[in-house]
């Protein structure tokens, strides 16, 4: 899990650097980042949904919490993967030389995506992982 969070945070950092550099971005960085997003998220989400979430659900007591948290996290995974496809598409276009017509809109899109990923990680670190005995991933 530590590796998964580290890789997602590295992706967030790369996206933030691209957003900060708009409209003058490194096209190769855009291509490399675009090609990493979907496979990375798909693999991490599968791991979380098959290993981490079932362990969390088994660890919480009935009176303590419902399964609403894992249902929400699973829904976020679907949203993240849809958003990742859109981000990938724009980064590939930029990487292949497409002119950025509205750098502010692209930056807003990238920031929305990576901030969502960071919030998801923060929630897992604060609420899910301690329940299954994983602590101090920072």
Automatic annotation (TrEMBL):
| A Pfam family hit | Hemerythrin
Q: Which InterPro entries match?
A: Hemerythrin-like
Origin superkingdom: Bacteria
Q: Where is the Hemerythrin-like domain?
A: 1-132
Protein name as catalogued: Hemerythrin domain-containing protein
């Amino acid at each position: 899990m530590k590796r998964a969070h580290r890789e997602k945070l590295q992706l967030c950092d790369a996206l933030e650097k691209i957003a900060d550099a708009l409209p003058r971005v490194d096209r190769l960085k855009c291509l490399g980042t675009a090609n990493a997003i979907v496979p990375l998220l798909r693999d991490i989400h599968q791991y979380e949904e098959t290993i981490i979430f079932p362990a969390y659900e088994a660890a919480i007591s009935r009176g303590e919490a419902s399964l609403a948290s894992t249902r929400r996290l699973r829904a976020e995974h679907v949203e993240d993967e849809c958003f990742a496809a859109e981000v990938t598409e724009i980064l590939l276009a930029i990487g292949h030389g497409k002119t950025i017509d509205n750098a502010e809109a692209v930056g807003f899109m990238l920031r929305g995506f990576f901030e969502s990923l960071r919030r998801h990680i923060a929630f897992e670190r604060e609420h899910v992982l301690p329940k299954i005995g994983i602590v101090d991933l920072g």
